[in-house]
């Protein structure tokens, strides 16, 4: 069994308490994890402060951009050499297949460091000449490190989410204190190993393991020397982080939950729709914040969609680590599986029925000790039903009909969330007309998760605050400064 310790200011440190990480695939223990103490978090934050904007900033925060990016580029190469280890860590922690971990996690995540290094190198400053009552002048802008950025990541896409947060923070000269989910600590531990072997100075990056309230997460969010927080996870946790960050007026970027809708119009290509919604509802066992949990279908295609979607859900391969292609693994834990199952149990109570799934699968082998649940599709529920309103974060979908375009838009917007939507139509005018009327941060047309990882990510309402991705991340991870110079005539 692995033993995962904390990496703090260039040293590996054991905690006073440990916890056991179990596999969601077969329920067996796979790692002992050392929980960071409050003093460890304090040490990590203070070290990050010193090398970013403190008395050792010459080693990192004040380093010339070209020098800093060269160090990040070298680190990226070292990380790519550990891709196989990163993939194995993702499979063991999450139970997803090797095919998924190879194609959507490993190298894809590692490449973000080079992508952000290139984006930072091309991030232009602004300038302007002007005249005023005091004479001629010009101003120009600098972007300086913000300081210490607390990166708190979820368990659903642990490697990708961690890289998306620490890559822009590092290239802009910040110090990072990273806390992965207690459910998925392994890939972040490999990141720390590679950083320890690289030329990134000690203190620039620290990794602390633990839980939220009364543990590592709380120690980090209430530390006064953390200048900003970048968090992805549950909306309720995001609210708590925002409340903690309000003390001292620290900035936050919060990517939170969703109850995303797919809108399927009468002219949609149904083959494309079924393939797309199968992915958008069930990929990664529905454990992606962008996943579709509600499908609104034009009444003329409603029965056809139900029949084909139910078959697609029932045909999904479940729990095959070596399956080449689309399949699903377990939910991340038994506790989360129980939460999803409890929501499924409300379907019949609230007047609906299942056309696929609705229960826990039986395998007759070690997987019965895992945290699996069947891809589940419900119909016949009122819009007020718990299954329609509450985020499940599992492989679930509710289908309902609509009669006209405005009704579809109204149904999609009838939620506290506003993260994503997918619009399925062959009418490009309709697509461009509908997309801006759905209150979400990202709208896909005839696709889902077709993403440039440097494109902006944002949310509306309970789905988040701030923006991530590409230039937005670089700007969040830096402090703008304007320098104004008076120009004297000879």
Task: Record keyword descriptors for this entry.
490 residues, Aldehyde Dehydrogenase, Chain A, domain 2, 6-stranded mixed beta sheet, single chain, Aldehyde Dehydrogenase, Chain A, domain 1, alpha/beta
Detailed description of the structure:
By secondary structure, this protein is α/β, with parallel strands linked by helices. The chain folds into two domains: 2-256 and 464-483, Aldehyde Dehydrogenase, Chain A, domain 1, CATH 3.40.605.10; 260-452, Aldehyde Dehydrogenase, Chain A, domain 2 (3-Layer(aba) Sandwich), CATH 3.40.309. It is built from 18 helices and 27 strands. A seven-stranded mixed beta sheet has the order 17-18-19-14-13-21-22. The protein has a six-stranded mixed beta sheet with strand order 10-9-8-11-12-25, sandwiched between helices. Strands 1-5-4 form a three-stranded mixed beta sheet, with no helix packed on it. Strand 21, helix 17 (428-434) and strand 22 (442-445) form a beta-alpha-beta unit. Helix 3 (83-94) packs antiparallel against helix 8 (186-197). The N and C termini lie far apart (75 Å). The model has no long low-confidence stretch (mean pLDDT 97).
